[in-house]
Amino acid sequence: MPHPQEPLSGIHPLLVGRFSPYRFDPSAVVDDHGVGLLLEAARWAPSAGNSQPWGFFVGRPGEPEHDRVLPHLAPSSARWATDASLLVVTLTRRHVDDTQLLYSEFADYDLGQAIAHMTVQAQAMGLASHQFRAFDLEGLTKELNPNPGWAIVSMVAVGKAADGPSEGRDRRSVAHLLSAPWSLGE
Ligand SMILES: Cc1cc2nc3c(=O)[nH]c(=O)nc-3n(C[C@H](O)[C@H](O)[C@H](O)COP(=O)(O)O)c2cc1C
């Protein structure tokens, strides 16, 4: 019997190997081609009505874009995200321009899929990613000033992992995820 916290054999090694590191190798570099591949992977994600409601702001250490993002990290994420080779700010197009009209009912959902693509692509390139929300959303929004209708959702730190998977990555069982929506569950 496999341990309930071990992935069942048969799922793809890229999925088994993925984890969110809390340490990155500060000497690692993601070159232009690498950045392009990560964005390309996101670009090919599915989206409702092919609405592609995602957008990104990227910066690597030493670049002005990185300098604009760094001051808005929360202390908890600055501890490790600063050493990542690439920071990606993720945005979704939630509304049509400055109206309250939804651009897509699935805008945030589709952004999540694009990021999932990006993280698997990163894994395939020998890189690790750590998504996070620990940053000053208001401050970063003021700094980047996205177009009306666009909202910053999250950030992703990408680089060479300098640690292994952390404690507390337990997953609920498949039985739970099949029953939780309909039973009282835990
Ligand atoms: C939308 C989102 C926001 C997250 N925010 C944070 C965060 O602010 N700080 C953090 O350390 N990790 C953050 N994480 C990472 C999760 O804690 C992590 O994915 C989860 O614990 C499972 O671990 P694993 O990715 O190693 O499997 C976030 C992940 C997602 C998808």
TrEMBL record:
Q: Which Pfam families match?
A: Nitroreductase
Q: Which domain of life is it from?
A: Bacteria
Q: Where is the Nitroreductase domain?
A: 16-75
Q: Does the keyword Transmembrane apply?
A: no
Q: Write down the Gene3D superfamilies for this protein, in alphabetical order.
A: NADH Oxidase
Q: Which family does it belong to?
A: Belongs to the nitroreductase family.
**What is the protein name given in its UniProt record?**
Nitroreductase family protein
> What lineage is on file?
Bacteria, Bacillati, Actinomycetota, Actinomycetes, Kitasatosporales
